[in-house]
Amino acid sequence: MKRSLVILLAASLLIAGCKAGKQSPADSDVKQEKTAPAKVEKVKEVKAEEDTTVNKNVEPAKEEMNKEPKYRIQTSKGEFVIKLYDETPLHKENFMKLAESGFFEGICFHRVINGFMVQVGDPFTKDSTKTNRWGEGGPGYTIPAEIVPGLTHKKGALAAARRGDTVNPAKESSGSQFYIVQDESGCKHLDGEYSIFGEVISGLDVIDRIASVATDFADKPIDRIDILSVTREK
Asked: How are beta strands 157-160 and 196-202 bridged, if at all?
């Protein structure tokens, strides 16, 4: 497991630090964000009108697709497919809103730790002149925590990044930054601390590929790994 580094950045959304020898949320010397938490705009569910000519046997499949939508994420290292959990509706609807507005396109993975996780979702990473602020950006709001018993940091789990407990005792999530578990054993201690809202269902080898790239002292990949597109699966 890669050696832990504590990077004390103002308003940074970190998923690692030093705590009892394990990777854990940074919880000190983090300044309060200037933007106040905002309510997450819910994505309206699209419900088909009842049609007596429709084969009722196919309806459950449609309902299931709406409950746990799937998205194909194309990166410069390959593509993977995720599904979003129905148990975390605020995070699900927020991701859908951002994905379908094109928010994630052009954003790069700004924090990669082999044996732990890969992190993405900061709009500042679209601007190479803001490298020193990567990890601080977002859409200007946070999301209330949705920590669901039974949802754990298994390999491929998607979880929302957040600020440390000292300045964020409610464990509210970043509005856009999230991480993907690359190694379950390296993330077990995060269970119950972060909102897990989905999982990778195809392309785990791509997550391993991203996690294995060369990084600098701040865990930034030496060569950019961009999100090229995020498209909903039919």
From this structure: antiparallel
What residues does 226 pair with on adjacent strands?
A: 108
Locus of tokens 């856009």: 176
* C-alpha to C-alpha distances, 17 to 3, 25, 126, 163, 218, nearest whole angstrom: 10, 6, 25, 12, 11
Degrees, nearest 5: CA angle 189-193-198? 95
Residue 212 near residue 114 (C-beta atoms within 8 A): yes
Amino acid code (one letter) for 229: S
Give the position of tokens 């949320």.
25
150 DSSP 8-state letter = T
Neighbours of 24 (CB within 10 A): 20
DSSP-derived letter for residue 23 is: -
Q: Over the stretch 29-84, which tens digit does the pLDDT of each residue have?
A: 223 333 333 333 333 333 333 333 334 343 444 444 468 999 999 999 999 999 99
Closest among 119, 106, 96 to 177, alpha carbons compared:
119
The structure's pTM equals 0.76
> Count of H helices and E strands in the chain?
4, 10
